[in-house]
Specification:
Blueprint lengths: L4 E3 L5 H7 L11 E4 L4 E6 L6 E7 L3 E4 L2 E4 L7 E3 L7 H5 L1 E6 L1 E6 L2 E7 L4 E10 L2 E9 L13 E2 L6 H8 L17 E2 L2 E2 L1 E4 L13 E2 L1
Parallel strand pairs: 4-12, 7-12
Antiparallel strand pairs: 1-2, 1-9, 3-4, 5-6, 8-11, 9-10, 10-16, 11-12, 12-13, 14-15, 16-17
Length: 213
């Protein structure tokens, strides 16, 4: 379960977006330890070309006092890959979520930060609620090399491939082409995943020795 992630403003995220032809990179919301139900930046192609938009990190919303709020009965910051075939969003409203790192723990203990040393995209789903957007990160089964840090899941990360990005954002009923990507990978464009132990999950103080997996 991915429940905290970073978007560092000094990690070349805007240049990364421009490399993939994403419009309006200046709209990016930056910050470390982005938390569920907060506003985050996503990339959609719902208006044709890929562009940065803002979304609430919680897929299902409800109207409370005339305003859209995260739905109290449906915790939906992640979407399990096993249920994707049942979701209309998987066929029609896929998004990408720019990030530079994410944090996991083992049943609440021994938190670690995962990163590739470069920006990347989480694969996600989005919904529209009037003028608002909401989103969730797709989670896969845990990778054998990362299960000792977090045994439950691993986020779906887009390969460093412009063709994949275009196809993912393009929508359409056919989803078979994405089946090979519904398995966790610990490398991205030649960069191996780095694991850095943390003193606290929401903190930025590192302890121990970082390792590559």
């Amino acid at each position: 379960m991915c429940s905290v992630f970073d978007v560092n403003d000094d990690a070349g995220v805007e240049r990364f977006l421009e490399e993939y032809g994403v419009h309006h990179p200046q709209r990016m919301i930056f910050g470390r330890r982005r938390r569920p139900t907060s506003q985050v930046s996503i990339v959609t192609a719902r208006h044709g070309a890929p562009e940065v938009e803002s979304a609430i990190w919680h897929l299902y919303l409800e109207k409370v006092g005339g305003q859209w709020k995260p739905h109290k009965k449906y915790w939906s910051i992640n979407s399990n890959w096993k249920k994707l075939g049942q979701r209309p969003e998987y066929r029609k409203s896929r998004c990408l979520i720019p990030a530079t790192a994410w944090v996991e723990s083992q049943r609440g203990d021994n938190p670690v930060e995962f990163s590739f040393g470069r920006p990347f995209f989480f694969c996600g789903l989005y919904k529209t609620w009037g003028d608002l957007l909401s989103c969730a990160i797709i989670t896969l089964a845990a990778h054998p090399d990362t299960a000792k840090f977090h045994e439950k899941s691993f986020p779906m990360i887009a390969p460093a491939d412009a063709g994949f990005v275009e196809q993912w954002l393009g929508g359409g009923e056919g989803t078979d082409a994405f089946e090979p990507h519904l398995h966790p990978h610990t490398a991205l464009g030649g960069a191996r995943l780095m694991v850095r132990p943390l003193k606290r999950a929401m903190g930025t103080e590192y302890i121990g020795v970082p390792v590559r997996v």
